[in-house]
Amino acid sequence: MMFIRKVVGALDAARVPWVLVGGYALVLHGVVRGTVDIDIAITLDADVFRRCEAALKSIGLAPRLPVTADEVFHFREEYIANRNLLAWSFYNPANPLEMVDVLIGEDAGAMETVEVEAFGMTLNVAAIGELIAMKRKAGRAQDIEDIRALEKLL
């Protein structure tokens, strides 16, 4: 639980507009689901990508791929279409269980969100409808199960 506080603190200090998506978001909506990594969407803006990269590096995280924020931002459509790269992943080399995936095809600025009090802070969480739409696009087996669980909450 301390890792999420560290991540959110760094993003907020760097003025990165972010939204929690993925497994943590499902859990905060009431779905019973295990997850290790923190999935976020940020505003699709080159400066925001640079601030996000700096924030995550400031807490000891390293990108899994040797690409910069500018490269990810400017080539994200090509990465998504031709390399199936949907997330810009960061991890802690000293503790590989500390991982953050930044979804590069989702715009936090266009998402419907809810504020959730958890872990001693306020978190911006993607609304259930947003999560369902994102999961439908991804279409993996886990996503189909997540959709079923989320629809039960409606």
Note down, in words, how this protein is organized.
- The protein has one domain (2-151): Beta Polymerase, domain 2, CATH 3.30.460.40.
- The chain is built from six helices and seven strands, in the order αβαβαβαββββαα.
- The chain has helices at 2-13, 22-29, 46-58, 69-83, 128-138, 141-151; strands at residues 18-21, 38-42, 62-63, 87-92, 95-107, 113-118, 121-126.
- Strands 1-2-5-4-3 form a five-stranded mixed sheet. A two-stranded antiparallel ribbon has the order 6-7.
- α1 crosses α3 (46-58) and α5 (128-138) packs antiparallel against α6.
- The chain is globular.
- The model has no long low-confidence stretch (mean pLDDT 94).
Summarize it.
This protein is of the alpha+beta class and 154 residues long. The chain is 45% helix and 27% strand.
* Radius of gyration from CA coordinates: 15 Å
Instruction: Kindly identify the CATH topology.
Output: Beta Polymerase, domain 2
Strand order of the largest sheet: 1-2-5-4-3
Averaged pLDDT, please? 94
* Main sheet: strands, sense, barrel: 5 strands, mixed
| CATH architecture classification name | 2-Layer Sandwich
